[in-house]
Amino acid sequence: MTGAFLVLAATLASVRGGAASKPTGVALGEGFELKIDDTARVESEELELGFAAVPSDSRCPKGERCIHEGDATVHIWLQKGEEPKQTLELHTSSRDEGVASNLGYEVRLLRLDPYPVSGKSIARGDYLATLEVSGESSALATTRAWTKKGGALAGAPPSLTPGSVPAQRASSGTGRPSSRR
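Request: output the structure for the sequence above.
Response:
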């Protein structure tokens, strides 16, 4: 009886996700889909990411009239090589770009399905995120480098360092500098 119980418990554990599934291979700049607890791997970058959770979903359901569009929050994790996992929070709201950055990569939430329907709940396992991973934009990377160096951009003239104000000439309103007599 005890042996049969152990076999049953081991079978249930493997069905419920006790065994890790193989990550889906994806490429930078291409959209892909993940269900909660699924992972994807960008081989060329030694980057792995996973869809962790939808901790909140307040999107306005189909068939309802809402004052606000609502928002769903999506948690994604990134891991490069042996570095620790980093969690990103993405949003579906149009007030948010649905983009987060970490480890030198941008992750964009393109879509979250299913869309809520009035009177029906969405099971955790039914969520499907359409995502895209890209290298961090050069402007964002420059801003991050600037911030990490205490705000002083390497090689920038002193007039561009924090706290400095570029010298300005007084204007007479004619577009030419004023002259003092």
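Residues 1-19, 138-148, 152-181 have pLDDT under 50 and may be disordered.
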